[in-house]
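Q: My collaborator sent me two sequences in one message, no labels, and asked for predicted structures for both. Can we handle them in order? The first one she listed is below.
A: Yes, handling them in the order given. First sequence, followed by its structure tokens:
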Amino acid sequence: MSTHLPTADVQDPESNARTARLREALLAAAFTADGLLDLLGAPAYAALARSETVPALRATRGDSPLETLVRLFLLQRPVELRRARAALPVADCLADGWLVQDGEELRASVDVRPYAGPEEQDWWIVSDLGCAVGGAGGIRGVGERDRAELVLGVGGASTTLAGLTVRRPVGKALDLGTGSGIQALHAAQHATHVTGTDLNPRALRIAALTLALSGAAPADLREGSLFEPVGDETYDLIVSNPPFVISPGARLTYRDGGMGGDDLCRTLVQQSAAHLNDGGYCQLLANWQHVAGEDWHDRLRSWVPRGCDAWIVQREVQDITQYAELWLRDAGDHRTGDEEYAARYDAWLDEFEAHRTKAIGFGWITLRKSGSDSPSITVEEWPHPVEQPLGESVVAHFARQDYLRATDDAALLAGHFRLADEVVQEQVGLPGAEDPEHVVLRQNRGMRRATKVDTVAAGFAGVCDGSLPAGRILDAIAQLVGEDPVLLRDRTPASIRMLVEQGFLEPVAAGG
């Protein structure tokens, strides 16, 4: 597989004009996320994510410009020169290296995948050949050196992080480990200045192509590891989809941390505070070890730097054999000989044994530089479905922590609350029973949490519309259930705090 990359130069006005004409051609052919789905249909579109290209090949047997572009840029198929000329400004693409000519056929030098922005913008993510769909595990015939330097396109991890990220206007944003540039592309929509870093110089080149082809402003792209390329600069937003895989060695730059165990993710988290402006966020995906004899919650709390609040969510846990097999397949090692595969599998298990690792967790880490002497650190497990995007839910989470940190029980009872939107109540019990065994409050938005509450808490939440202070509502409930109102006021603040912390209740101004 060729390692050639396009030579399009964002500093050259003529090259920029050629890139703009290419973008116009892609739009004219409907080579967009919606156009791709319309052409292929849902089954073939989904098959691409599994590295299965046969359904898409069957759907692109015609001569339309869109079918030509799909074959060129997504399916790695050469096309006849006459077909390419009907879809693209061929001279421009040859001049800037997007296409390579071989006789009367043309082939793409990179994969280009249509991608819909958060406001339905039509963007395109550039990646190495074979990496736009299905990840590196689907690539055939790539040498070891080439594979180590690969730059992947859009995957589940990158879209997850994009959805999690706080999208408030900021001055400076840093995409650490930019890869194909998807996070930098998102950040360019709400940050005045975007910096992207990567250890792999190919990634920086491809990120520049992604930004240029998508019509975004150029980013300040710098080569190096972790925070080394930015010195002591600080940012309002740091995002990172780092090479978090816990593996023996660092064979694959795009995924392997190259440090022992989960040290790369820990180091990134601990060093981030020094590069955040006050009130700034650092958001990243990470893997972490579950170590024999240690509580994983405590392990992650120990990572959080001084002066930062944190919200850490474990989304999935795999035992060490599942984890090793997943990433051996990602590297294509399952297609090697039995002895070689077994030797590499053994090396992974040796790595885990050396660090007393019994399982690997995957999840999200968000830090906010609050400067508080009593930081809020939430470490939780939530493997259930959520509703993306979650950026506003992240902002709301930390706002609730600020409120609870500043509000004692007396102020809590004097406060006014409203039931959050999309919260429903479920009563669980045996059929025909007079009273339910328990009551569940469930969110239908954001984190989609569910929590079991007693009848007092359920009744309290149900009447919260912002008009009455919490204490008066409890007094009315006490009269209804025949309980001492003083005792009810004493034992209920913990339940109110829990409902506020998890987003079921929202503090409001009096009457509001």
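Q: And the one she listed second?
A: Here it is, processed independently of the first:
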Amino acid sequence: MKKVRTNFPDWSASVPVLPKAGPRRLALYRELRRLIEAGSMPPGSKLPTTRDLAARFGLSRGAAVAAYEMLIADGFAEARVGAGTYVANEVPVLAEPVTPVLRNTAEEAGPLPGALGCSAADERTIQVFRSLLNRHLMQPSSRHFHYNEPAGDRELREEVAAYLRAARGVNCSADQVVMTSGTQQALDLVIRSVLKPGDPVWIEDPCYPMARFAFSAAGMRLVGVTVDEEGIDPEKGIAREPRARAVYVSPSHQFPLGVTLSMRRRLALIEWAKRNDAFIIEDDYDSEYRFAGPPLSSMQGIDAEGRVIYVGTFSKVLMPGLRIGYLVLPWSLRDTVLDVRRRTDRFPSTLAEGALAEFLREGHFAAHVKRARRRVKRARDLLVEALDGSGLEVTTPEQGLHLVAGLPADMVDTDVATEAARAGFGVRALSPMYVDVPPRRGLVIGFSGFPAEELARAAGRWVKTLRL
């Protein structure tokens, strides 16, 4: 009988001490990877069982399993059915893991620092999510091999509903949740299900451009309603078009101005929608990023009339490439929306949904949000510091992933944005986001998706080119 070659370091005398900070599974993964790269465990060597490994390090067996899954996902190990886990025959040569960020280099063009719509999950999040995806590929569920429910995976909808009830005060069950490919598909499903071409729709003025495009492309008659320090003004909407069929709002953190819709106006909108058999589409796109004060409750949570359609996404808090968002529907719309979903793209990706459900259920999401919030807050602070003395009117936001910088009246924001791009800073002009109201000139600047120091340096270089 051929003897299995093992070359695992003898730790009987002195077991390496893993760092106490951070998840133990990641520390174990790094230690095992270091030993493999150093040649202490050569290609083809059999690794100890997870039970033995856990005992050696004083860890839970689950942590050992997770560490092996990450090694396998990264190509450092391979699982052989019935035989155990082995060091890969061809070990990849990799640099030290770094936080994945979007960069703009000569080799790979991409968004510039300051651009909107960027996010960056840290190394810890990427490793965990990779291991969860790999778990579903190694032991695939039967649901990956047949057509799924149009609302999405039941387990994920349960987790999303639980999260929204706890974090956002949303009043819902899993049966009201419909998983989507981000906010844009969610809006498209609502438009197809609730509205028809020619219907008047209130939108915030200024408004999130992609939402505006979704409504206009579907033939809606858009009515821009002024946004002030209290958010959208229902009285002005009623004065312009009292019989609108729907209103699109971002009440917790209005895009782009960043204001919060007052309770007085929230209640007025709900009353108007009830009276006119209209719907409120609540876009809650970045509520995880609140830096001061208690979390804001959703409008949906105070709606007792079934008038609010709640829209959320994992794009801002995790990554746009995940392409997972969700709707929370009033019961009156559920069947209609699911029928439209069934006739369009059938159902979401069960593979990504399965990994995300475990990411939420096992507590990884909550830990990720805490880390991400700290990173984003630091980036915000360094950006504001870099803009200090520029002559721009900058207010430090207490929520979200962007700020608005006011310009002198004699400057054209679209021209300034073009010049900023030439200087390597990716800002957006504010004025094109207005609909009917005379536009305010300014710049919308993101502070997520890039290391804080890189963002601050880019802002500093750009400020030196400004001629205010």
